[in-house]
Amino acid sequence: MAKKNGKKNKKNKSLNDERLKIILGIFILFLAAFLTLAFISYFFTWKVDQSFQYSKVISGIEINVENWSGKAGAHFANLFINKWFGIASFTLPFLLIVIGLRFFNIKLFSIRKTLKLSIFGTIILSVLLGYLFGNLNGYLGSGLGGGHGYFIALWLNSFLGKVGTAFLLTLSIIAFFIFSSKKSIIWSKKLFAELFNREYKAPENIENKNKAEKNVTKTEEEDTEPEITEEEIDDQLSFTTRRIKKEEVAQTQTHREKTSEEDEDIEVTIEEKHGEDKLNGTVKNYQIENYDPTLELSSYKLPPLSLLEKHGDESNGEIDKEEIIANKNRIVETLANYKIQIDKIKATVGPTVTLYEIIPAPGVRISKIKNLEDDIALSLAALGIRIIAPIPGRGTIGIEVPNQNPEIVSMRSIISSKAFSESKYELAIGLGKTISNDTYVVDLTKMPHLLVAGATGQGKSVGLNAIITSLLYKKHPAQLKFVLIDPKKVELTLYTKIEKHFLAKLPDSEEPIITETQKVVNTLNSLCIEMDHRYDLLKAAHVRNIKEYNTKFIARKLNPEKGHKYLPYIVVIVDEFADLIMTAGKEIEGPIARLAQLARAIGIHLIIATQRPSTNIITGVIKANFPARMAFRVSSMVDSRTILDTPGANQLIGRGDMLITSGSNLIRLQCAFIDTPELDKITDYIQSQQSYPSAFMLPEYTAEGSEETGEVDFSKRDALFEDAARLVIRHQQGSTSLIQRKFSIGYNRAGRIIDQLEAANIVGPFEGSKARQVLFQDEYALEQYLKDFLENN
Fold this sequence. Notes:
Layout: H1 2-16, H2 18-50, H3 54-59, H4 70-84, H5 91-102, H6 111-133, H7 146-180, H8 183-195, H9 206-224, H10 230-237, H11 246-264, E1 277-279, E2 282-284, H12 321-337, E3 342-349, E4 353-360, H13 366-370, H14 373-380, E5 386-391, E6 396-402, H15 411-415, H16 418-421, E7 428-434, E8 439-443, E9 450-453, H17 460-472, E10 480-485, H18 499-502, E11 504-505, H19 517-541, H20 546-554, E12 569-574, H21 577-584, H22 586-598, E13 604-610, H23 620-624, E14 628-631, H24 637-644, E15 657-661, E16 666-671, H25 676-687, E17 696-697, H26 721-731, H27 736-743, H28 747-759, H29 779-792
Parallel strand pairs: 9-13, 9-14, 10-12, 11-17, 12-13
Antiparallel strand pairs: 1-2, 3-4, 4-6, 5-6, 7-8, 7-16, 14-15, 15-16
């Protein structure tokens, strides 16, 4: 027995040895770091490492693996992530870190609780990922949930069905969170209390309740017993020392009596989440949730990337080195024939054009190289060569040469790019790729208007479709509206299907795409009325632009009863501007110029396209207010100068090859290509979702002299006359579209009501582009007037 006890004592001493604890702690932390590195590496090397048999990987010396933690790391990563639990396996290194730090007397969490939660959390997360994502076509081997998650999810789907499996997983997740934290129990009770409109009564703290009961019992005992002995207090308070001074005993007794009194006065507080309430003489404040403009269509989903095609002739950035070397040699030879020496030449390959940057020898004039543009084109046997002398900010001369095998830049590659998907722009537009193969993304709000020109068949309409698609992939219907003007009647008809989601139109317009010239004039003037109204709202809100206004409205700092509302961006797209100018002239140019000058701050942006960029179409007034311009191939240098103020657009090669400028640098792009079937899929996808009852209604506009109020028979006044009068006074806006929208009635009936309100002197007469004046300031004055008016009529 003595020997056995000696062995046990020796063993306990070895376990309590601080050196052994430190070694074990370091080992466990190292193991956690090793596994973490192996798991992370697996996401990058799993394809290569999975091509080997892991039994051979472990034993074979000649076999190399790519995993950062070597063969052991590859083996364990494959075991945990591929065969077992997928990315949920990262709970294992976390558990090891918690255990390892305990050897250094650092307690992050309870080991027992962490172990339980890690086991159950790993299993639930693995199955959840397997259920949601499947095996993702073999990504990471068995998908994000690993082999365990994938096959358990398959079994549950076959046994319970997808809906039953979803319920089971939801229940498991709720149970996991309830067991993980006591606070989740209180939170759950509060949630259910709110759902059933019942008050939640917080339970008393058990320890306080027990103490209170003990104190009540003690008080009763004090009535019969004259004194509390020192031993009784020692026993009840579990003091480790039996020697307590009499002063300490007295203090302790006094403290217990006070505690008893406090516990007897415990109050239960009822929490109110809605409104401001007074309870037990105390005032409770609440924080109002922000307004959500997307709430009405909260289930709306942005179009998925799968609706767009990859287009098979993309070469994934492969470079024809022989072509580049041959072109470089020809450029050097041509310049040498004219005794122009160069110090250096560098090529940058783009999707359709390669930029050759040359640094001429000292003393060579730039103009001499510029004059050789046609000679270089002849030696290279290529069209569309453009010389940039010099390239701004680089100190080099650029020669752009078209590639023999140009690539198609698909819209899918633009939408999926990091530059577009992570863009924080208000109105992000992905136009295409630059010569250096970078995705070109701009913010329409910074432009703020865009002028587009190009000859027929050079990519202008595709460019407009790329702009619209970019915005549809970024914005919710509540945040953006389009006004589409298409005099040719065929280019923008595809977007009719998204009328109730994204389009804006006049109240009396039946067609969502505006094609008739007079309706175009009315729509542009209606936008001027909308612009003026928005500026009034900004003035009343004391803000400078639409972004500040919407931020303030979302924070509920603006009162809707005073006419304030969330303002969506409005993008006006005119497909053939030349036809409108030829038929309507100043009637079109006037409101266009006014909108271009003033509409930027209130979120109305213009995109005007034409295939005839002549000076009688793109006048000085138009050019002055459109600093951003996009040019596809045009027929002459004069047209290029009209649109860009510089030559170059006449030297483009067509099929989406374009130049864009925002007032300073000129950038050459290959425009993104999107085909008609892709647009059909996108519009069908949007149309299939819940929509608003109608398109976004612009303010009514009637041409001057076309609206005259005749005699009104008030005995036949509309049943909604009084309600409409109150509505107009409340909103301080005499508008047919307002009455039509609020009462869900037709435009003709709403127009008759406005006529009756005008005849009754409640609103003023029609004033062209200006809104009608409201002649009463408050409802009280209106009610007094209506009382007398209705008695006499």
